[in-house]
Amino acid sequence: MKRTTRNALCNLLLLAAGAALLLWVDRTFDRYVVQVLNLIAINTILALSLNLIYGFTGMFSLGHAGFMAVGAYVSSLLILPQAQKQTIYILKPLIWPLSVLQAPFFVAVLLGGLAAALFAILISVPVLRLGGDYLGIATLGFAEIIRVVANNIVPITNGALGLKGIPSYANLWWTYGWCALAVIFIARLVQSNTGNVLKAIRDDEVAAKAMGIDVFKYKVISFTVGGFFAGIGGALLASLLTTIDPKMFTFMLTFNVLMIVVAGGLGSITGSVLSGAVITVLLEWLRFVENPVTIGGFTIPGVPGMRMVVFSLALLCIILFRREGIMGMREWSWDMLFRGRTRGGEAR
Amino acid sequence: MKYGRLILGVLLVCIMAGAAFASEDVIRIGVYLPLTGQMAFGGQLELDGVKMAHEAVPEVLGKKVELIVIDNKSDKVEAANAMQRLIEKEKVHAVIGTYGSSLAMAGGEISEKAGIPVMGTSCTNPLVTQGKKYYFRACFIDPFQGAAAAQYVFDNGSKKAAMLLDVASDYCVGLGKFFEDQFKKLGGELVTTLNYQSGDQDFTAQLTEIISKNPDVLFIPSYFAEGAIIIKQAKELGAKFMIMGGDAMDNPEMVKIGGEAIEGFAFTTFPYDPSMPEMSELQAQFTEAWKAKYPDKDSNANSALGYDSYMLVIDAMKRAGSADPEAVTKALAETKDFPGVTGSTTMNATHDAEKPVGIKKIEGGKQVFVGTVMPNL
Q1: Which residue is closest to A287 within chain B, CA to CA?
Q2: Read out DSSP for A127-139?
Q3: Which domains does chain B have, with CATH numbers?
Q4: pLDDT tens digits for range A6-37
């Protein structure tokens, strides 16, 4: 069997197995486990999109919360039932076209992603002329602008009160469906010639330019695709939580995603997927350290906030002893499995 | 091996009986509050109140009550996870919480689906219980509180009001709006409304503008950290008008941060204060018990609400005669004239506690309870 056919077959089998697993999980486990699983999928989408921008193209972007906010607000406004729209806008009524617009969930999430992508294009034109830390600061500024604007355009976003009662369409099928789509799309992208160009820009921008690459164009492409999936992640998160407000989309949210990307490995899709799962589970699982523990007759009272201390220690260890993250730049592949030995992703 | 199966069967029965026994033996009440993060100061006080109530009444229906406390980190995602964990993993019969309306909204959606009754402590935004069958609260709501503040300042001779609002705080924006509505309805005039963002430190520009408009009263429904700075800076700029705030200002720290500048500052709150001149028996008991348990901390309305929330849930379980979530929900909805530390409590149709609004004033470096107001809505 040819290698490509074998790999395609394996991928299909994996997807089918994943779907079967979801069906089983959905039926057996309680809502708490399902909630955490949903968060894993959403965090993975977000991490992948930031990894494309930062890990594969080398653009240090801190604007993720901004894209998520755009995606979340656009899709939520499209799926909120009309009656709900009337009751929650208690400061000022929702302006006309938005108050009657409705869309199915898939379309709403897609439009949320597209709106975020549109914002990504708009800001990339002035901002991507900057490099390094300056780009980080500029994109951070963008995210803050989005948040402050959301606070102030009350007739559209309901200001600080936020939206509530968003229908919770986001179930395992939707979140993992979008997650699979994001993995496949971004994996295909970075393996294609475009991906090689992006990596060339990351490794040496000047050299890439000298080779005749339109650096700006490719940066915009990468930034836009990243923004699109960030918007999708935001839209799914809104529907999962059923309530959003501008306070959610602070720098801390971007930082969480950045943490997943760095812990997984910059420039590794496998790493982002793994650490998306590991960090989300770790955060929830570590709750036990905040409970009172009895060891041999001694009772240690629970300290709120202990979880974050332990979590931060774990992160410190990752960065100290494994600076390149869980996967580094390596990828997992079928070839690796069949040949039974590891091989650097960049060598392919 | 003949007896192998028999022994196995007996063991299995024992385990199952044990499990059934364990789940029937205690009544589990979940508590989700912000114990870390931005809103930790309120969450901690409320948790102290809940714990005190638990110590006072550790049993109901002849069973032990177990409290399961989970920190929601002042974060929406965490609040939703915390509620999900309480219901699915800890199998609680009822939940108490939370401080912060936005957190309550994230948790409320989940308890609603699972059909577990929740008693909100101090989530005052009207949207929290709107359209919810299982969410209740031990506090009044912001429209009521805002109206009471407006009523109080209007009755005390203020005809021109100004507002300084935190646009990033749902609580602040909502309360401001309800104050404005009632103040205008009473015939007052709102001369200006200016904004700031949570975390701001310098309010001199807005205050100079407000002073130039010469209002009788300035309404600032902020949290106490910003509120204290606003009052300080207003006094430094020579402001002569009265300043009024909401229940988020009710914190023992207030006097420490504000110092002398906050003399004469008034705010609406829940009708309980350790310095109240005429206390009911229950309030006196609560104050005494608090002093004995936490000698170096002052009690406030939040701790009293935490206490009341627990007692309301226990009362509902007693009246329902079981800890079954549906029965408790039904009993909670029927709560009438329940004697609480924060006044007599009746659940209305929208699951809000109907109780009078208390007014407190800072006099001589101390919080003084002025009286209660029932606004004419």
Answers
A1: B70
A2: HTTS-HHHHHHHH
A3: 9-140+282-355 (3.40.50.2300), 143-269 (3.40.50.2300)
A4: 888 888 898 899 899 988 888 888 888 899 99
